[in-house]
Amino acid sequence: MKQFVLTLIAVLIGGFLALLGYDRFIVQPREAAATKAEAAAKAQTAPANPQVDLGRARAEAQQVADEVEASVQRSVDGARQTMDAQAKLMDRRALIAEAASRATMFRVSLTEYYQSNGRWPRDADEAGLPAPTEMRGGAVREIRLGEQGVVTVKMDERFPEGSAIVLRPAANAASGMVDWTCEVKGDELKQSLPRCKG
């Protein structure tokens, strides 16, 4: 057994020394030669004394800076135009919503009048509503009360000619209930009030 242990130790030491010698005399010289060859190849391809044209470099840098600045300005201008268009659209939709709310006031008063009297009023004064021109404001030019309780809200010059919101009542004489339908005239109103028929 003692003999076996000594032999094993001798084999291990011999293997270690063989690996150490292989690394020292074979691997390291190969790596050093490869590194030298790479350095020589780089030295042959690189110019011996590179010249830098500072004037040209400055001009190219200025051109790049100008292009970046122009690109940023275009982006800012595009964002500003988009925001302005969005703000204008929101303002117009607010005017349309305000006109629809004015029409709602007429609708409520007319519904109450019909339920109390069983008929539609002859005019706004009989229903206790302001005169058509007194309802002017926002984008509303006038609100007219027509036959059978039809309410027409005419928009002012900020909207195309003929733009209007029309509310038509449908009364059930037996129950006294009134259902209202909405109709719009003008493409912009159709987009802003999609629930109304166009």
Report helical residue fraction.
55-70%
Instruction: Output the CATH class name of the domain at 78-192.
Output: Alpha Beta
The overall average pLDDT, rounded, is 85
Residue runs with pLDDT of under 50 for 5 or more positions: none
Short structural description:
The chain is of the alpha+beta class and 198 residues long.
Task: Looking at this protein, list some descriptive labels.
198 residues, alpha+beta, Glycoprotein, Type 4 Pilin, four-stranded antiparallel β-sheet, 3 helices, 14% strand
What does this protein structure show overall?
This protein is an alpha+beta fold and 198 residues long. It has a domain at 78-192: Glycoprotein, Type 4 Pilin (2-Layer Sandwich). The chain has 3 helices and 4 strands; from the N terminus they run H-H-E-E-E-E-H. Strands 1-2-3-4 form a 4-stranded antiparallel sheet.
Layout of secondary structure:
Blueprint: H1 2-45, H2 54-117, E1 140-145, E2 151-155, E3 164-171, E4 178-185, H3 187-192
Antiparallel strand pairs: 1-2, 2-3, 3-4
